[in-house]
Write a structure and sequence with these properties.
Layout: E1 12-17, E2 27-32, H1 33-37, E3 41-47, H2 53-65, H3 67-72, E4 77-82, H4 86-96, E5 102-106, H5 111-116, E6 119-122, E7 128-131, E8 134-139, E9 142-148, H6 159-170
Parallel strand pairs: 3-4, 4-5
Antiparallel strand pairs: 1-2, 1-5, 3-8, 6-7, 8-9
Length: about 170
């Protein structure tokens, strides 16, 4: 499993882009994780699935609400990563009003989750292999803080914890 001090693994994530710009076409676009994280401080949070109860009611809304504070604490970007396709993540982003605040990054085949070791097997519940619930603060591609939730918990991967850690690391 990835840990503090490790570099993010090589790989890609997909994002549904609503408007053309910055070399991105409308629709799903593929982004290289290492290139996208180079030279930036990124708050990444992973969760089991789009439109699921805790994820929709607490996890994403917390990061959307704390966007300005996280930016002020030195966070350049916020990524929500889930094992869903880019179309679902795009629809969820519209539902959550995350545009311009949280990048809704699709890990459709769970490749990023597997590469980081942050997987959650929900096969018995009909959901297959998913991302565990976590958050991490990444600076120039290196993990500076990692908060992994216990099964069924939402206690340490929230935006408030990430904000505190971002302030500590930028100090």
């Amino acid at each position: 499993m990835i840990k503090v001090g490790d570099k993010l693994p090589a790989g890609t994530l997909n994002e549904f882009i609503e408007v053309e710009g910055n070399g991105c076409s409308i629709g799903p676009n593929t982004f290289d994780v290492q290139k996208e994280s180079a030279g930036k401080t990124i708050a990444i949070f992973g969760l089991p699935g789009a439109f699921t109860p805790t994820c929709s009611a607490k996890h994403v809304p917390g990061y959307v609400a704390r966007f300005d504070e996280l930016k002020a604490a030195g966070v350049d970007e916020i990524w929500c990563v889930s094992v869903n396709d880019a179309f679902v993540m795009g629809a969820w982003g519209r539902d959550q009003h995350s545009g311009g605040k949280v990048r809704m990054m699709a890990d459709g085949s769970a490749d990023f989750a597997k590469a980081t070791g942050l997987t959650l097997d929900l096969t018995a519940k009909g959901m297959g292999l998913r991302s565990a619930r976590y958050s991490m603060l990444v600076k120039d591609g290196v993990v500076k803080a990692l908060n992994l939730e216990g099964p069924g918990k939402f206690e340490v991967s929230d935006a408030e914890t990430m904000l505190r850690q971002a302030k500590e690391i930028s100090a």
